[in-house]
Write a structure and sequence with these properties.
This protein is mostly helical. It has a domain of about 80 residues: Tetratricopeptide repeat domain (Serine Threonine Protein Phosphatase 5, Tetratricopeptide repeat, Alpha Horseshoe). Helix content is about 75%, strand content about 0%. The chain has 14 helices and no strands. The longest helix is centred in the N-terminal third of the chain and has 40 residues. The chain starts with a helix and ends in an 8-residue tail after the last helix.
Length: about 270
């Protein structure tokens, strides 16, 4: 009897729990159906005739398309819209447009402001461009120390142009003592990243014996590497080697051929 009573009590408890679950499930279905009804009552952008606002990435890509087509006015406005939404690369492009007077009058203060915003946000090209402003003294007092600071930050971030610029400053003693070994180290890092200006600079250091023994064969090797990437200065330098017979047999015809190649207009690059 006790067993039957316990079984009966247990069955009642089970039925009670099952009933509660059924009620909860029914309530859940009711909630879901209400939610679905509410969603079905919301009008889509197509029904209202309104499009959702474009994101900063979409606006940036639209700006790049207009910039490539040299439609600078609308590109400037689109870059500004994207930059104000936090797009870092748009900030850097705005700096370039204000610096070069594209779609606007040249406004160096605006260029610096946008380059700085991009640089502070971690954009290595923004850092490099800000360094160039201080290096050239464009609209600001020339400051090699600030140029080196931004070039170095840019180079550490992996930007090959920044590496090349740091090398130039060590080679020429701008803001730092002349240090050919340090210059060569930065030029080599930049050349490893396929920077043709760095390759040409390395060739020049071997030709002049700056921090390394004079080695015309090494100079020719680096000049050819840069020339193969379209560097006209390197082509001219190869011409000098042939004209003067430095590391190669003197050959006036070959020299003229390289001088002529150096004088050719650069081949336009395609995006």
């Amino acid at each position: 009897m006790v067993a039957q009573a316990l079984a009966c009590e247990w069955n009642r408890a089970i039925r009670a729990r099952v009933f509660k679950k059924i009620v909860k499930f029914a309530l859940l279905l009711s909630t879901l159906s209400l939610s679905l009804v509410a969603q079905s009552q919301q009008q889509t952008p197509q029904q209202t005739g309104a499009n959702p606002p474009a994101g900063k990435e979409a606006i940036f890509h639209r700006a790049m398309t207009m910039y490539a087509a040299k439609n600078y006015g609308p590109a400037l406005r689109a870059f500004e819209e994207s930059a104000n939404m936090g797009h870092v690369e748009a900030m850097m492009h705005l700096g370039i447009m204000y610096s070069e007077g594209q779609g606007t009058a040249v406004k160096v203060d605006e260029a610096i402001a946008w380059f700085r915003k991009a640089a502070v946000a971690g954009d290595s090209q923004g850092m490099c461009n800000l360094g160039s402003i201080y290096y050239q003294g464009r609209g600001v007092p020339q400051r090699f120390d600030l140029a080196m600071k931004w070039f170095h930050n840019c180079a550490v971030g992996g930007n090959d142009q920044g590496m090349f610029n740091v090398g130039v400053m060590y080679r020429d003693g701008q803001g730092v003592p002349v240090d050919y070994a340090e210059a060569m180290a930065w030029f080599l890092k930049s050349a490893d990243a396929e920077n043709d200006k760095a390759m040409n600079a390395i060739g020049n250091m071997y030709q002049k014996g700056q921090g390394v023994p004079v080695d015309y064969a090494a100079a020719a090797k680096w000049y050819h590497s840069a020339a193969n990437m379209g560097n006209s200065s390197a082509m001219f330098n190869i011409g000098v080697l042939y004209e003067q017979g430095l590391g190669v047999p003197a050959d006036a015809d070959e020299a003229r051929r390289w001088y002529a190649k150096a004088a050719e207009p650069p081949t336009p690059s395609h995006p």
